[in-house]
């Protein structure tokens, strides 16, 4: 059994803060939106939690960004090899085939994570999208909704508060679905708890 | 006791009658009556307190035309044997009326009706026979006519309170005060000098339709002596003769000399005529009183001004003849007079909703004089309650609502900073409420409003006044500070010039008349704008203009905005607005130049439709205006998110034998 140190401590801290924060944000977001049919907490409490967490995750995002920028791993880990597009596409299809078919028939996962190449091509493209586009968008639109007056010019830039709300809500819908799938995919290690454990210890076990 | 007293008096009369010499010429019947009624002190107290003398001068009676008649000829119900018990008589006039009826037994009405004027008097019964002809000492008409001077002759009837009712139902008094004539410049004139068509035998009847016609026609009498040529010598006076008749300034009988007036101080000079109830006629037939009450001027803020300070084109030598189309036309020009001194106020007024409404023909809309009056010019600031009352005269509903507010309470308590109507709506530049930014008026007094709201209206982790601003900019103060029903107002807005898109601009886009704009929105004509109607309308407008719908939350009935309650009672519950369950109505507004906007009922669904995203770009109230389809998408995504692992696990379970087989095969 080989152990690979896949998740450095800052990344693990960032991940778990992010994970808990995301879930609570999704739930409080739902409470704010469905105030007249959901009774988890009062509207005011939901808004307070949502706003506080919003800023915590905003800071958390910058911790992540800073860590990856300073460690120089951002480009290696998150950016797909766009200079080898054919190979990347082939790898992606292979990975998709594994999840859709290979896993059923007992094929081996074509991707072997290393600290330098942590994500499989599908993970890579989706995490890049999420971290570089969707989360910043959610942060920006969140800020617009948090104080439409202070961030009025941002709202104008984006096409009005209505568009900002649309983006924020659409991403809330996406993240809600994503987090379920993400949690399921996390159980697809060699044991259901393998990836989850790794996210606590930092060490991913790999069969020889 | 009273009976004994009366019997005593009668017995005493009989006894005394033997000592009173009675002329032989009168009949025995008369003699018998005069035994009592010949006593000078014989009188009766009437019910109204008047004293009626019962004394008859036998000698004088004998000489009268009725001298040979018995008393019973005119008093048929009284004989010596049957003298009625003391009668109850209300007053002298009632008594005269009762006995004047007896005249008709000998002088049949037919005969009395023959002379036209006399006939009219008899018919109407305005003057009683005895009032003109007397009762016991009646002269022969022929003798009296010969003897009487013209004045005496005319005044004999015209001294009474007689009047004439014209077909217009106006009443003209025909009473003439002889003293007034004597004191006037015409003091020595006989009636017939002016009323030359009258004589002792001729009393024409004029059939004027109304007082105005009467005045104009009677003025002709004056011009017989005071010819047009003579009047033209004084241009000011001549001009006056074209706008008012002689008698309006100079009076009817107590004619005043114009020469005396000239030496008066200016205001007195003008008031000599303008204190009378004179009117000015407009081209369209409307009449405007040009009467000025001296007291009004003296109690006004203009008390130190001379008439010509305002009415510059007039003087003792100039009285131009002005003609106005209508009162509206007159009032528009009256504003120019105020503008001579009060340019700032007039400039502000000119942009007001009041000026626009007046221009559009709303006669009720105020101009300078409607609020400040014509001559009783008032300064409207000090008494806050009185100032409000002035607005309430027209805006009674708003006034009623305001009475329920804390602001009215503050006025009643005499608080110095209590607001009245003008504090929020301005006094001269009163604007339509949707343009006036009334919220700013609240901030004018409630300067710390932002910081006090920041205490509770903030979003963690920072307390920022900008968050308060976001709320102030999209909800009126009244929407939280009253209990009134609320509505979401969407206003058609031109993003290019940052102004509301007006009715006429919309009409131009559609190439139609402004009256047709409503039909372009509510094309099914059911008085409610449905979402499809709104979006169809918006897409046409947007094709030609950078239009959008801006929104705000306000009270449904604008009057309710006046019912501001104490801050303890204000709405602080965020979910009051931020919930899709909030029972808010919605309205669509299209502005109109200088007047209140057109307001149309809007189906609330339109705000929650996906079409709202491109059309209401700048207005979004969390919860209240949320796009419903996104809620459905959320649940679909959740289901999808669950379906992926469930499906995948199922497939993995189903394919487990294959994996086992492959593992075994190895």
TrEMBL record, chain A:
UniProt keyword annotations, A-Z: Cell membrane, Electron transport, Heme, Iron, Membrane, Metal-binding, Transmembrane, Transmembrane helix, Transport
Ranges annotated as spanning the membrane: 12-32, 52-70, 125-146, 166-187
Topology class, membrane: Multi-pass membrane protein
Residue intervals of the Cytochrome b561 bacterial/Ni-hydrogenase domain: 7-202
Pfam families referenced in this protein's UniProt entry, alphabetically: Ni_hydr_CYTB
GO cellular component: plasma membrane
Chief localization: membrane
Tree of life domain: Bacteria
GO annotation, biological process: respiratory electron transport chain
An MF annotation (GO) of this entry: iron ion binding
Family that this chain belongs to: Belongs to the HupC/HyaC/HydC family.
Protein name, entry field: Formate dehydrogenase, gamma subunit
Lineage, broadest ranks: Bacteria, Pseudomonadati, Nitrospirota, Thermodesulfovibrionia, Thermodesulfovibrionales
UniProtKB/TrEMBL annotation, chain B:
InterPro entries: Multihaem_cyt_sf, Multiheme_Cytochr_ET, NapC/NirT_cytc_sf, Paired_CXXCH_1
Every Doubled CXXCH motif domain range: 242-276
Signal peptide residue numbers: none
Signal recorded as keyword: yes
Gene3D superfamilies, A to Z: Cytochrome C3 (3.90.10.10), Di-heme elbow motif domain (1.10.3820.10), Flavocytochrome C3, Chain A (1.10.1130.10), Hydroxylamine Oxidoreductase, Chain A, domain 1 (1.10.780.10)
Family annotation (Pfam families): Paired_CXXCH_1 (PF09699)
SUPFAM superfamilies: Multiheme cytochromes (SSF48695)
Record keywords: Electron transport, Heme, Iron, Membrane, Metal-binding, Signal, Transmembrane, Transmembrane helix, Transport
Residue spans crossing the bilayer: 632-654
GO molecular function: metal ion binding
Protein name: Doubled CXXCH domain-containing protein
Lineage: Bacteria, Pseudomonadati, Nitrospirota, Thermodesulfovibrionia, Thermodesulfovibrionales
């Amino acid at each position: 059994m080989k152990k690979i140190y896949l998740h450095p401590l800052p990344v693990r801290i960032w991940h778990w803060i992010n994970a808990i924060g995301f879930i609570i944000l999704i739930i409080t977001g739902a409470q704010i939106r469905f105030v007249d049919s959901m009774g988890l907490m009062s509207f005011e409490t939901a808004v307070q939690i949502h706003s506080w967490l919003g800023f915590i995750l905003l800071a958390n995002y910058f911790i992540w960004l800073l860590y990856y920028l300073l460690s120089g791993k951002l480009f290696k880990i998150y950016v797909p090899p766009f200079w080898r597009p054919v190979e990347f596409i082939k790898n992606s299809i292979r990975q998709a085939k594994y999840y859709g078919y290979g896993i059923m028939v007992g094929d081996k996962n074509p991707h072997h994570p290393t600290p330098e190449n942590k994500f499989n091509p599908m993970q890579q493209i989706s995490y890049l999208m999420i971290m570089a586009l969707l989360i910043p968008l959610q942060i920006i639109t969140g800020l617009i909704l948090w104080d439409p007056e202070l961030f009025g010019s941002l709202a104008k830039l984006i096409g009005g508060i209505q568009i900002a709300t649309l983006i924020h809500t659409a991403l809330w819908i996406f993240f809600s679905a994503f987090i379920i799938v993400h949690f399921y995919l996390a159980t697809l290690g060699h044991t259901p708890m393998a990836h989850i454990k790794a996210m606590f210890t930092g060490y991913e076990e790999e069969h020889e | 006791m009273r009976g004994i007293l009366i019997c005593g008096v009668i017995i005493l009369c009989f006894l005394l009658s033997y000592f009173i010499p009675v002329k032989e010429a009168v009949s025995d019947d008369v003699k018998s009556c005069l035994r009592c009624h010949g006593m000078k002190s014989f009188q009766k107290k009437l019910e109204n307190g008047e004293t009626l003398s019962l004394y008859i001068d036998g000698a004088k009676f004998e000489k009268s035309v009725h001298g040979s008649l018995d008393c019973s000829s005119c008093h048929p119900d009284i004989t010596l044997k049957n003298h009625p018990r003391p009668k109850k008589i209300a007053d002298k006039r009632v008594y005269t009326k009762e006995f004047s009826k007896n005249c008709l037994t000998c002088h049949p009405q037919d005969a009395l009706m023959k002379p036209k004027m006399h006939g009219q008097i008899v018919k109407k019964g305005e003057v009683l026979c005895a009032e003109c002809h007397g009762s016991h000492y009646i002269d022969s008409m022929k003798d009296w006519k010969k003897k009487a001077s013209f004045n005496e002759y005319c005044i004999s009837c015209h001294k009474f309170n007689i009047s004439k009712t014209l077909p217009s139902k106006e009443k003209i008094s025909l009473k003439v005060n002889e003293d007034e004539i004597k004191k006037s410049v015409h003091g020595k004139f006989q009636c017939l000098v002016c009323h030359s068509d009258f004589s002792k035998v001729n009393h024409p009847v004029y059939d004027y339709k109304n007082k105005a016609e009467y005045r104009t026609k009677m003025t002709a009498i004056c011009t017989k002596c005071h010819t047009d040529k003579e009047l033209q010598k004084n241009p000011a006076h001549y001009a006056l003769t074209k706008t008012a008749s002689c008698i309006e300034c100079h009076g009817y009988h107590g004619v005043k000399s114009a020469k005396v007036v000239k030496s008066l101080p200016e205001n007195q000079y003008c008031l000599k005529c303008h204190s009378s109830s004179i009117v000015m006629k407009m081209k369209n037939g409307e009449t405007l009183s040009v009467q000025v009450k001296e007291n009004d001027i003296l109690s006004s803020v203009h008390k130190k001004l001379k008439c010509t300070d305002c009415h510059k084109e007039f003087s003792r030598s100039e009285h131009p003849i002005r003609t106005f189309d209508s009162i509206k036309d007159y009032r528009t020009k009256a504003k120019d007079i105020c503008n001579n001194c009060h340019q700032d106020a007039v400039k502000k007024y000119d942009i007001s909703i009041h000026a626009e409404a007046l221009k559009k023909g709303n006669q009720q809309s105020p101009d300078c004089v409607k609020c400040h009056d014509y001559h009783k010019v008032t300064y409207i600031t000090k008494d806050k309650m009185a100032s409000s009352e002035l607005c309430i005269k027209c805006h009674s509903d708003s006034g009623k609502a305001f009475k329920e507010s804390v602001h009215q309470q503050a006025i009643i308590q005499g608080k110095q900073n209590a607001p009245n109507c003008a504090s929020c709506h301005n006094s001269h530049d009163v604007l339509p409420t949707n343009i006036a930014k009334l919220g700013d008026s609240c901030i004018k007094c409630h300067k710390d409003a932002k910081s006090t709201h920041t205490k509770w209206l903030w979003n963690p982790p920072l307390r920022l006044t900008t968050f308060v601003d976001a709320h102030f900019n999209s909800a009126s103060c009244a929407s939280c500070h009253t209990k009134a029903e609320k509505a979401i107002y969407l206003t058609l807005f031109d993003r290019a010039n940052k102004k509301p898109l007006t009715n006429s601009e919309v009409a131009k886009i559609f190439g139609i008349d402004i009256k047709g704009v409503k039909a372009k929105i509510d094309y099914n004509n059911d008085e409610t704008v449905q979402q499809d109607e709104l979006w169809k309308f918006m897409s046409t407008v947007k094709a030609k203009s950078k239009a959008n719908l801006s929104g705000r939350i306000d009270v449904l009935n604008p009057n309710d905005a006046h019912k501001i309650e104490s801050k303890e009672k204000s709405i602080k519950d965020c979910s009051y607005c931020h919930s899709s369950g909030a029972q808010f109505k919605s309205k669509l507004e299209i502005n109109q130049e200088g007047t209140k906007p057109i307001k149309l009922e809007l189906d609330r669904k339109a705000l929650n439709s996906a079409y709202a995203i491109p059309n209401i770009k700048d207005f979004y109230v969390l919860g209240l205006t949320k796009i419903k389809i996104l809620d459905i998408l959320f649940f679909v995504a959740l289901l999808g998110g669950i379906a992926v692992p469930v499906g995948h696990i199922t497939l993995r379970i189903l394919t487990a034998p294959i994996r086992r087989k492959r593992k075994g095969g190895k």
